[in-house]
Amino acid sequence: MTDRFLNSGDGSDSNTGADWSNEKLTLATGIAAIDAAGDRVLINFAHTETAASITYTFPGTNASPNQFLSVTPTGGSGVSALTAGATFTANSGAGGMTWSGSGYLYGLTLTMSTSSSAALSLGGGDGNHQTWEACNINMTGGGGASTLSVGSAATGGGSRIVFIGCTFQFGATGQRIQFASDVQIKGGSWSASGTLNPGAVFIPAGANANGRGQHLKVDGFDFSNLNAAVNLMGAGQGGALAVFRGCKLPASWSGEPIADASLIAGQRVEMYNCDNADTNYKLWVKEYCGSIRDQTTIVRTGGASDGTTPLSWKLASSANVAYPAAVLVSPEIAIWNDTAGVSKTVTLEFVHDTNVAGGQGAGASFAFRDDEVWLEVEYMGNGSFPLTSRITDAPASVIATPADQASSSVTWTTTGLTTPVKQKASVTFTPAEKGWFICRLVLAKASKTLYVCPKADVT
Amino acid sequence: MTTIVESSWSAGPVQACGRQYVLETHVDDAGVIYTAEYLAGKEVDRDAVMAARAVEIDEAVSARDSGKQERGDAQAAVDVVLKQAVKEGKLNPDVIGKAGYESEVAADVAEVAAEAIKP
Predict the structure, then answer these.
(1) A196 and A168 in contact (C-beta within 8 Å)?
(2) pTM of the model
(3) Rg (CA), chain B
(4) Which residue from A minimizes the CA distance to B33?
(5) Could you say which of B37, B52, B61 has the minimum Cβ distance to residue A229?
(6) CA of B68 to nearest chain A CA: how many angstroms apart?
(7) With the C-alpha atoms ordered A8, A10, A16, A21, is the resulting torsion angle positive or negative?
(8) pLDDT in tens, B52-99
(9) What is the ipTM of this complex?
(10) What is the distance between the alpha carbons of residues A84 and A152, in angstroms, rounded to a whole number?
(11) Hey, is the C-beta of B27 within 8 angstroms of any chain A C-beta?
């Protein structure tokens, strides 16, 4: 590993780049001419580098990544502190800005100010691993179709791009963060500057990704500077999964995880504990087959709670649900089982309003049948291997005669429901070993709504 | 072009946090229903949110339909090139769909497709 030194203040690309007295002037030309895999590039935090477009393919590999650190210099070749501030700007033309290679980048401000619909591309190389920390990623130009393109969508390729404590900014409502392969955002916030009302923030990689699945995970990110109507996800290729956890949303947020018109088969956006108020139980999952949301009004007495606030999950299936092929599946409910060899019954309680157009289920008095709603549980059914068993209370097969799910006598608060019908789904089995019960409620009838208590009863 | 012709909203019971789930329903001129749900406090102007979303849905659906048209145009152009390539013996019809065609044909396909989807 060799240290390289960069400073626009008094550097020159004819220098050796070997210390602070011989700094290079530019990254894209000076450093690019001498860098090698594993090198550490120390950048004076006052460094500014501007060009029509910037394309920098650094030589770092997964085995030997580069480091690019914005620092306060000291002595001949020392560093007194990591200091964010080094700036790279692409200001015209359609070339945009590209950083590919594997490496760790600290404290850089990337600004693409071109008015063309260019891309700011990070980690687009096949196999890239990049971690960006304390960086500002700014798209300030007016290019309506510009994307912050993150990750590799190459055929047969892959990448993992991570942002830690970074800020992001758009310059036009049509701009998006387009994610490919695996992208993770940990902490950070949306800038208070720039365009705050994009139609959506993220989209899965488009045509170049050939429809293969993309993963986005966003934890602890502050979206509150954005306008209330913003959707988190826009239209894109199928197979994408996006998970938002512990994020702060804009005040009076009226957007959605993803709009109905943007949903296609295989897409799912999950939001856990994301809100603009002081709550800790929020849940919103939206996908092609429907949505699942928290509820704190229609709740079971003695049922699920965050410790203070009773809650339930509202499952609303879309018109795309069709038994048995396409169904809406709740998030998993995990329960530790500490006894083996003893018969267990797991039950999920649910309630629904039959006073709606067309009723609800096809059973007696619009009760749901077991081919419309069922419980599935995975448990440790094998005494020799961690091979789980799966049991459901759905009909034995698609040609079996369905039966009504059992009615229930537990107490629910049913404010807003005209004709509440209480039912339960349960399965009985004998686990062979201690382990987790993984429970899910399945809604298999199109355009129906029910409320399930996510506190599973185990007896 | 698709247009939203009817929009309405209804609010559910007040939640523990004091807000209500507001369910919007939008219907376009083909009878397709779009719904949107959000959690609103009393301060939120629900009519204004609904009106803004109707515009947004119009734009999104129009963009989607436009994209379908572009892809249709591109596909038609690609079909012409492929048929011509088969006719000229540059392409073995047995390997269409198996990534087996000549690079020269692939280049033609890409060029024609790009031309066809130009704005």
Answers:
(1) no
(2) 0.88
(3) 24
(4) A260
(5) B52
(6) 13
(7) negative
(8) 999 988 887 777 676 655 555 556 666 666 667 667 766 665 544 433
(9) 0.82
(10) 26
(11) no
